[in-house]
Fold Amidohydrolase.
Amino acid sequence: MKPEELTAHILEAGAAIEDTIVATRRYFHAHPELSTKELSTSNSICARLTRMGIPYERVAKTGVIATIKGTAPDAYDDQGNPRRRIALRADIDALPVTEETGLPYESKNTGVMHACGHDCHIAMMLGAVRILNDMREQLHGEVRIIFQPAEEISIGSRMMIRAGALEGVDGLFGMHIWSDVDAGEISCAPGQRMANTDWFRIDVQGISAHGSMPHKGVDAIVVAAELVNVIQTLVSRDISPFEPLVVTVGEIHGGEARNIMAGSAYLTGTVRTWSEKSRRMVPEHLEHLIKRTAKAFGAKAKLTYEEGNAGLSNDKASAARAERAVVKLFGEEALSDYEGTLAGEDFAEYLKIVPGVFAFVGCRNPKVGAVHPQHSCFYRVDESVLVRGAELAAQYAVDFLAE
């Protein structure tokens, strides 16, 4: 087929399975599982691959690596090595969020929700798999599909790398349904797109006392509350305003009874930085703020700082290939000029090893209530864009293997 015929075929195949992609998304949305516990999700993915006749391997407990072998005359050499191998990745885990959307396919697992769109990623990738599997004669090499667990806790990509997911891979494609980009638009620009992602815990040690006698103790909850405010001066006063930085406290715990002044408390949170310079500065500055504040109250505080994933940066050539694929499929107007985000993604760990691109598939549409951000209990997507994600992944793979 000519290139334009291949694109037309992908669009036609996508249109034929659009309802299936949406139904698949709704199934996974209703049955979310937390990071490293995605056993039923993994089982369902494997069952669908089996029905399509696609071989796969189960790795890292709940991860899946599937393979589509092209049958174009030059797809493999005499030793059975693929001419080129492209990897497509989808993450599969959900979040500890109690859903409040009221949708008919709302989560059946109380306290767990696909509030980041990974259900969409599974559905879009299975759609791409179906499209690619039906056009193997046009594949000049091999497609590897990575269904990855535990992205939300920043360890899944490393697990899959250790399991051999990138061995022999020449290029990589990933995508994320994204609430900051309008439905119908896709962003896959070159350069840095997402932030460095690090984690912290602060343990506060005070002195417990009777709730009626606060002067006889050191209230760890008061110290913890003060720390929530104090550490924000890291953003407002310690780091240049030209350096993007976010410090968020996601948990605060302390106390055992309503009439006992807490002797201990802890906070956990995340730090997002854009530059490596800021990333290196934060732990020392945070330690300084925490120690001084605790001392002022007569308490002690211990900082535990964990470096997570590096910032995600798209390879220039891969980004250009992805943008060409978007234009082929949907026209120039589908390209978004989205500036990037201080959210993080462990896809960045793959990009340290193999050149690739990470695309943001826009799903924001007020007309269908898709206005809430990722990780919201009210999170919704415009499901009409799911087929575009499947078509883009398929087009990218076809184009990469044809080069």
